[in-house]
Amino acid sequence: MTEFIQQILAGLAAGVVYAGLALALGVVFQGTGMLNLAQGELATLSAFGAWSLVEAGMSFWLAFPAAVLLSAALGAAVERVLVRPVEGAGPMVLLAAGAAMLLGLNALIALVWDTDPKTFASPFGASSVGVGEIRLTSQQVGAAVLVLVTMGVIAALFRFTPVGLKLRAVATNPDSARLLGVRTGRMLALGWALAGAVGAVAGTAAAPIAGLSPEMMAGPLLLALAAATLGGMTSRGGAVVGGLIIGVAGSLASRYVPGLGGDLQLVVPFAVIFAVLLLRPQGLFGRAATVRA
Amino acid sequence: MSAPTTASRRSLPWPWIAAVVWALAVPFLFSDYDLLQLSRVWSVALAVASLNLLSGYAGQVSAGHGALFGLGAYTGVLLVGEGGMPWPVALLGALVLCLGAGALLGLPALRVDGLGLGLITIAVAALFPLVVTRFESLTGGAVGYALGAPPLSAPGWTGLADAQFAYLVVLAVCGVAVLGLRNLTRGRFGRSLEALRTSSLMAVSNGVETRRLTLTVFALSAGVAGLAGALNALALTLVTPDTFTLAFSLTLLAASVVGGTRSWAGAIVGGAFVTYLPQLMSDNMGGGSSGQWAQVAYAAVLLLVLYFAPRGVVTFVRAGLARLGARRTREKTA
């Protein structure tokens, strides 16, 4: 029983990273209608940025917000410069643009920081916390808190601020939002900035456990895609819940299903979403689009 | 006497004839290595064409065609290597198996569209190399599976070298398959696809069985992709799991968009794009990290094409030529 709970907690700790990335994917998707395949690479870039600042002698608690702000700026810049020109060109072009950015960023990161994996010292120390025999490393707990707080801030921003209202308006109905005087272009860029920031937090939180390498976010991105589908692309809360479910499912399956070693762990979340998509295509929390003939 | 419209419709497609003559002359002009590269171009072009059928004509998204290509490649190589089959049987086997796999992949397409489908196909693409590596006893695991003798060896009476024969086989099969796809999209089937792509509601109300059509087009597209993979692998005599990663699937998708999702000539452009551009880039940028620079340049070129020719290079060039022609006639009449 102790081990079972332990596995669930470890799954939740891993799941917050997927949840963060899934939230970033969802925010971009709702705004731009683009499945941003490069979201993971953007997060990797942020983690490397934070690492470089720490290596240069900066304290983690200064380097971390700096990296998050830079990532937000980068996210907005990417939307403005790279995505804006192809925004209306259809899903295949957008998907291809995402793939191009993924390949390009991946290679750029490898050029700047080379491909050798680096260790990112945990800002939370190497101790562990827990009750009785159930233990989690302070890194796991700290990273989870970091991501959860960020997601809370984002949720509050969407829910309670005028800017959040505009963001939601643009996501729901861009045309009427524009007619009501909302600067849609600016809101889309802001959405990308928020996604960049959440991704940066997720990437930096994952780095001490996953290790820093240009490929570090390849797996998590896939799981985040799964999480976003599971929860429903149109639901921010759903993306987060989806991420946690995927994390726990992966952790439990790799422990209790024989024959599923680390490499095949990816099968589990996809089996889950496959089932969900067939039974409930809009995801657990998404809204189904109704069509009037 | 025929009306001018009929005459122009029947007029020979000169660019295509020139291309065919060139393609047939190639094996007697180039080195074996170049022939192998060209075999790759044709087989990848066929895979891109299969993706075009699905995305450009049926309006469905797939980010998993790299996995189907890989499934075909493994099927073809294993049928020859383990089953001792002759290569035509291996090609047929790959085609049939991938038809089935495509129909399975089409099942979720009946429930989800666009994004969800993209995700499922991405998942298939990501899982394929892992699954292949896991079934080591059959597939040779991470090292891959190499054939002892080249399966596409020239029969004695042809007097051709093996490399020349292999190239011609790849060319012939790809040519016939692309022609088949093209004809398929022009008849009744093509019109129902057009209806499905425009609006599935409209298609249903006009008597198109959209569910059956979706499954059929998925199966066909996957079967052709598998055939392309088998051709590719039999020409290379080798399969490795890291050839068929998610990145490869995304590359195919990019190639389809670059050439133009509704252009068969574009599929060839796309095939050449993914085969030669990375090589061209790394050849011209020496040094240890040339592979990465090549990838950056590849991404940059891809983005530029998407900006300036979102409907594909072929459409872009055609429109440019048409504009040029229109200006010429204007100048003449003025």
Give the tags.
heterodimer, A: mainly alpha, ABC transporter involved in vitamin B12 uptake, BtuC, B: 334 residues, mainly alpha
Describe this structure in words.
- The complex is a heterodimer of chains A (293) and B (334).
- With 293 residues, chain A is mainly α.
- Chain A has one domain: ABC transporter involved in vitamin B12 uptake, BtuC.
- In chain A, 72% of the residues lie in helices and 3% in strands.
- Chain A contains 11 helices and 2 strands, in the order ααααββααααααα.
- Chain A has a two-stranded antiparallel sheet.
- In chain A, helix 6 packs across helix 8 (184-210) and helix 9 packs parallel to helix 11 (267-279).
- Chain A is globular and about 60 Å long.
- Chain A starts with a helix and ends in a 14-residue tail after the last helix.
- With 334 residues, chain B is mostly helical.
- Chain B is 76% helix and 1% strand.
- Chain B has 15 helices and 2 strands.
- In chain B, strands 1-2 form a two-stranded antiparallel sheet.
- The two termini of chain B are 32 Å apart.
- At the A-B interface, helix 4, helix 9 and helix 11 of A face helix 5, helix 6, helix 12 and helix 14 of B.
How would you concisely characterize the structure shown here?
The complex is a heterodimer of chains A (293) and B (334). Chain A is 72% helix and 3% strand.
